[in-house]
Amino acid sequence: MPTKILVIDDDIAITELMSMLLKTHGFDVITSNISAEGVEMAQKNSPNVILLDLMMPDMDGWQVCSAIRSFSNIPILILSAINDPGVVASVLDAGADDFLVKPVPSGVLVAHIRKMVRRAEAHEKSIKKFTGPLNRNTQPLSSHL
Question: Which pLDDT tens digit goes with each residue over 2-19?
């Protein structure tokens, strides 16, 4: 099953370019040019990773990130032309998982996406490992004392 990427950016040219680029690397890509619609798509489509722009007219990236964090831990990668350490810190504090400054070499972008997918999958496996069925043969501690 291919990795599903949701790209949220108000610039149609950017979402089209990202879609073409990511599809050549085997990703399944869905896009939104409206922030609120992107939040809905994140909830309905359960992507593996979200690529999110910061500067958008209806809801900015901080608001979108917070809205998505209210219902999901989907990895969020911010792509922005803003190269300011304070901005990077504030959006990471708002719940983003990673930040890259545009323009990003395609190989670097794909490597960051794959890293985020690996971490999310490892996290899922560890949760399943620790929340699996209880061993029915385990005796209460008090019976061994």
Answer: 999 999 999 999 999 999
* Structural domain containing residue 41: 4-131
At position 51, the amino acid (one-letter code) is: L
Q: What is the mean pLDDT of residues 96-122?
A: 94
Length of the chain counted residue by residue? 145
Could you give the CA distance from residue 5 to residue 112 in angstroms, rounded to a whole number? 12
Residue 139 is assigned to a structural domain of this protein: no
Whether 144 is in a domain gets the answer no
**Structure-block tokens of residue 105:** 């070499």
Quote the strand ranges of the chain, DSSP E: 4-8, 28-32, 49-52, 76-80, 98-101
Report how far residue 104's alpha carbon sits from residue 110's, in angstroms, rounded to the nearest whole number: 10
Assess contact for 65 and 90: CB atoms under 8 A: no
Is residue 8 situated within a structural domain? yes
12 burial (CB, 10 Å; 0-12 / 13-18 / 19+) is: exposed
Structural domain count, the chain:
1
The reply to whether 107 falls in a domain is yes
